[in-house]
């Protein structure tokens, strides 16, 4: 995204460091992220938008950084990274649906939940989670849930999933904040994004989540749960002003696991979104991954 940009490569190193320090790496099966076949990107994005990204990629190959909006840019490697990020989410869905692994975490950049059907925004190019959710439906899942605990509203995911009631979306987001406007589809029962004011504590977020998310998740009874795992609601992350800590991410992860069907593998695919305070990001992601594994 350019120098001094918060969406930086060190974010993945911070997660890697914490996985090493926690000893979790010995327990994880690692896979490289494959490139997403372009046809699968069309599940969530228009042809004209994908052509725009490919033109920007061609331009970046010769001119360096190409701006897509005021805080989103592409360099010569961004398109490949975006295809690998979405490719990881799709491969993880396949691995989980086929029972090869119980759950998966995709340590990916760039993030995806602000990318709408038609446009890049908020550091996001391809909507990794929306592509993975729609791919899961194509592969035979009857119902899917997307849980978005990033501090920002997953406006792109909401935009893409608006016409797909088989995918339940659950989120909370600091409001008013970025992106402007808040939830746009108030009347759709399958979209439940709860606005919370700045300086809300983790305890209050937990009670809102318990009230709004869990009954809907139970009623939807999904075959697969995708998590838009942003860790920028952490109280040390000054990208926003919420008060979550590692224990809150563990609590949400454990509850999401508890909603999987009795006697069956949990089938959760979690994809990294935001999280910009490197230490808080690494600690929170490692705690989340640990909760997914046990
Ligand atoms: Zn965010």
Q: What structural class results from the helix and strand content?
A: alpha/beta
The secondary-structure element order is HHHEEHEHEHEEHHEHEH
Which compounds are bound in this model? zinc ion
- What share of the residues does DSSP label as strand, in percent? 5-15%
Rg: 17 Å
- Distinct helical segment count: 10
What's the CATH C level? Alpha Beta
Major sheet characteristics: 6 strands, parallel
Task: Name the overall outline.
Answer: globular
Nearest-integer average pLDDT: 96
Low-confidence parts lasting 5 or more residues at pLDDT below 50? none
Q: Say what the CATH topology is.
A: Arginase, Chain A
Whole-number tally of structural domains: 1
Amino- and carboxy-terminal Cα gap: 35 Å
Tell me the CATH architecture. 3-Layer(aba) Sandwich
- The CATH homologous superfamily name equals Histone deacetylase domain
How do the strands of the widest beta sheet line up side by side?
A: 3-8-7-4-5-6
> Helicity level, as a percent range?
40-55%
Number of strands: 8
Provide structural commentary.
- This protein is α/β, with parallel strands linked by helices.
- It has helices at residues 10-22, 38-41, 47-63, 78-97, 128-138, 155-161, 202-212, 214-220, 246-258, 278-293, and strands at residues 66-69, 72-74, 103-106, 144-148, 167-174, 191-196, 224-229, 268-272.
- The chain has a single domain, classed as 3-Layer(aba) Sandwich (Arginase, Chain A), CATH 3.40.800.20.
- The protein contains 10 helices and 8 strands.
- It has a 6-stranded parallel sheet with strand order 3-8-7-4-5-6, sandwiched between helices. The chain has a two-stranded antiparallel ribbon with strand order 1-2.
- Strand 4 (144-148), helix 6 and strand 5 form a beta-alpha-beta unit.
- The site of zinc ion has 7 residues, from loops.
């Amino acid at each position: 995204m350019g120098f001094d940009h918060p969406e930086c490569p060190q974010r993945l190193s911070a997660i890697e460091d914490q996985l090493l320090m926690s000893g979790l790496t010995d327990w994880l099966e690692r896979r490289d992220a494959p490139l997403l076949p372009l046809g699968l990107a069309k599940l969530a994005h228009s042809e004209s938008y994908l052509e725009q990204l490919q033109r920007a990629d061609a331009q970046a190959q010769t001119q360096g950084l190409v701006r897509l909006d005021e805080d989103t840019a592409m360099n010569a490697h961004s398109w490949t990274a975006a295809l690998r990020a979405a490719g990881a989410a799709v491969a993880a869905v396949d691995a989980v649906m086929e029972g090869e692994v119980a759950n998966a975490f995709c340590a990916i950049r760039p993030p995806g939940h602000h990318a709408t059907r038609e446009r890049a925004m908020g550091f996001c190019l391809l909507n990794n989670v929306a592509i993975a959710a729609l791919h899961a439906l194509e592969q035979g899942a009857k119902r899917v849930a997307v849980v978005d605990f990033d501090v920002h509203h997953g406006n792109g995911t909401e935009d893409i999933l608006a016409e797909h009631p088989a995918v339940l979306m659950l989120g909370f987001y600091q409001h008013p904040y970025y992106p402007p406007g808040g939830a746009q589809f108030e009347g759709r029962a399958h979209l439940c994004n709860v606005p919370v004011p700045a300086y809300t504590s983790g305890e209050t977020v937990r009670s809102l989540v318990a009230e709004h998310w869990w009954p809907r998740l139970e009623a939807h009874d999904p075959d697969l749960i995708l998590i838009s795992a942003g860790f920028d609601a952490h109280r040390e992350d000054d990208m926003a002003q919420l008060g979550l800590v590692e224990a809150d991410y563990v609590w949400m992860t454990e509850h999401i696991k508890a909603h999987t069907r009795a006697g069956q593998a949990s089938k959760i695919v979690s994809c990294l979104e935001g999280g910009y305070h490197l230490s808080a990001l690494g600690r929170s992601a490692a705690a989340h991954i640990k909760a997914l594994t046990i």
